[in-house]
Amino acid sequence: MKGTIFPYRIYHGLHCPIVPLGITGPSGSVITEAYVDSGAFYSIFSSNVAIGLGLAYKKVSSAPVMVGDGNTIPVYFHRLPIKIGFVNLKATIGFSDKLGIGFNLLGRRDIFSRFDIIFSDKKRIITFV
Questions:
Q1: SS3 state of residue 37
Q2: Staple 98 to which of 2, 35, 63, 73, CB 3.0 to 4.6 Å?
Q3: For 80-103, how does the pLDDT look when each residue is reduced to its tens digit (9 = 90+)?
Q4: Buried (b) or exposed (e) across 50-71, using 16+ Cβ within 10 A?
């Protein structure tokens, strides 16, 4: 089994499955990172990432998405090329200026169907196969 291995990153003193990835938009590409969240259906990124990509992200209709505390936030979805490790694919990425958790989320839609994702908290690595 061969794949791309990412070491966990430290966030607020905790080892977390945060991975680097590239996203391409109308104004070029942005390298960012996201917390890989098997409990999140959608990938949701900060509105700052959308601005860096040159997206007029609020020009599309928003969908209310429920977040971990039970509240809903407006999310604007775009289908964009992304790169995780050595793999290029298109994925539905949401953007919101109300994402208040301090990091981007890489959720299940279009990602978990493309990869087998293995979390190893013991080794503090995450593998995309």
A1: coil
A2: 73
A3: 999 999 999 999 999 999 988 889
A4: bbbbebebeeeeeeebebeeee
**By the 8 A CB rule, do 64 and 126 touch?**
no
From the options 3.40.50.720, 3.10.20.740, 1.10.150.750, 2.40.70.10, give the CATH code of 4-128.
2.40.70.10
101-111 confidence digits (pLDDT tens): 889 999 999 99
In tens, the pLDDT along 24-55 reads 999 999 999 999 999 999 999 999 999 999 99
Can you tell me the distance from the alpha carbon of 106 to that of 38, in angstroms, rounded to the nearest whole number? 8
Percent of the chain whose predicted confidence (pLDDT) is above 70 = 98
Tell me the two tokens of residue 59: 């020009």
Which regions of 1-129 does DSSP assign to beta strands (E)?
A: 4-7, 9-11, 14-16, 18-25, 28-36, 43-46, 62-66, 72-84, 87-96, 104-106, 117-120, 125-128
